[in-house]
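TL;DR need structure tokens for one chain.
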Amino acid sequence: MSWTRGAPAYGPDFIHLESPCATNSESGCFCSNDFSVTRTKVFADYIESFGSSEVPVSYYVSYDSSGQVSGALLISREGAS
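>> reply
TL;DR here they are.
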């Protein structure tokens, strides 16, 4: 996922992750995660250490009976042991 750091409402160590939808190619479809609670400099510096590279993460996504996303859970950083 691509990332941005900082937001006026949350401060300089706020992290936002975003990626185009993997299973939906419609224009404007994206998945995102805001780390508005985890705003430590250490965490923000870690994300920033990826440079212009994307942050490798895995999510568990659940769907309702109509096929709409009902929730997503960050489960791991890909490649983490």
